[in-house]
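Example 3.2
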Amino acid sequence: MEKTPKYHRILLKLSGEALSGEDGFGIDPSRAEDIAQRVGEVRNLGVDIAIVIGAGNLWRGRIGLERGMDRATADYMGMLATVMNALALMDAMERIGMVTRVQSAVEMHAVAEPYIRRRAIRHLEKGRVVILGGGTGNPYFSTDTAAALRAMEIGAELLIKATKVDGVYDSDPLTNPNAVRFDHLTYIETINRRLEVMDSTAISLCMDNNLPILVFNLWNKDDLRRAIFGEKVGTLVTA
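Structure, written as tokens:
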């Protein structure tokens, strides 16, 4: 008997680094193609997919702030960088036959649709992948918060935070070989332990609206597909 997906509409949060080359900067077209293939497999199951992407591969606001840059200016630069990443991902997806739309919270009509909630939902209903750039369109809010906000707005059943580690640990597993991985956490535990799942604004937003967050390694083959069927993958954060 054919299995049916547990989740029918998801929001996938990607870091900018997911698109970067070995050095963590820039856009590597082969990485974009790899992500497109994984997303395509899940889209072919009939799952609605929206994507929010960060900008860490192109611009880190922290660097500007350390040199005295205005915070709002640094954040707006980051928003523009997310749109560049969104276009790169759109291109990779369309080259393998996926119908994709890029919407931006910062209006730039020549390259992306403006973000309009009802239009985004209509695209999803028509089977298109919607890539949401420009963060929330406001400085002082991270792309994690944008992901939580957009997930709520489009009626996603699950917010997936794709990373390069296979879940949430009590310390950095890349530097501490004894780090312990959690299978499940509550929102409050995540905030109180200061576990770097997402920033506290994003987690609070998910907590207030009871939206589960799943954290896993995007590069583990089939993990995205397995997550859609509700199999045990990564770390699940719920009430």
